[in-house]
Every structure is written in C-alpha cells, then in structure tokens.
Amino acid sequence: MNVRIETKSAVTVAEMARMCGLSRARFYQLKGTVFPEPTRNAETGRPFYTEDQQRVCLDVRRRNCGINGQPVLFYTKGSHPASSVTRLKKSNSKQPKHTALVEAVRSLGLASTTATQIDVALKALYPDGANDIDQGEVIRAVFVHLQRQNSTDKHG
What we know:
Blueprint: E1 10-11, H1 13-19, H2 24-30, E2 39-40, E3 47-50, H3 51-63, H4 82-93, H5 99-107, H6 115-125, H7 135-155
Antiparallel strand pairs: 1-3, 2-3
C-alpha cells in the first residue's frame, strides 16, 4: 500500500505531523533527532517545513529510519500495542456497571440506589437485554420498578 502525499511549498509543524500520521506531541518529541528541525521565518520566527524538508520527513516515516540513522518504530495515530489494549479491557471491567443509569435514577430521587440494584431491576424488566430500547424509557422503567420495590419494602 503506497500512498503518495502531496507536498506544499511550506507547511506548519502541526500539518507536517498530520502528513506523517503522528500526533503533534509525538512529532515534537522526535523533532531534531528523528525528523529535521523546521526552518524559521526570519521576521516572525514561526517554524515551518519547506518542500524539501517535507520529503525528508515523509521518507523518514516511510522507511522507519530517522535522520540520525537510527531505526524508529511508529504507531499510527489512535492505534495501541496489544498490551495497551489488554490493559484497557482489564481496567474497563473493574468500572462499575450501569454508571449512567445509576446517576440518572439517583437524580430522580432514589439517592441510595446501587449498581447491583440497577442490575437486578434490568434483569427483571428486560430478561433479553435493553440494548434496543430507548435510554429514557429504560431509566423510567427502572426508576418505577425500584420505587415500587422500595414502597413495598416499607409497607410489607
């Protein structure tokens, strides 16, 4: 897959980072060692990359070899190594379930509602799952269910 990126007569550092498929922060980290330093406008001091410098940066990205001669590995913007994805999945599983639903029911007046109570109510109301049901309807149904349960507990 060989994608040709068109160069311009001059681009900003941020645009050069985009052309290389890197975040601005990562590009700034690599500037001066892996990528060349930008040229600076004599009057304003603003950094920019000339057309020749753009070609060098794009070649560095394509070959995975910096201007310092050292190999460099790049991750595409938004991608994660497998270990990061695994860590993200593990950390998400520790988060409480139904956080938004708990907050919504609490804001309606059931301040002591727990995620476990929400889970039990959802299983009772929607045994096949509530994924295809409007969120507002789910909140209303869970609220009414818990409110009835609480009033029954107080009277019974």
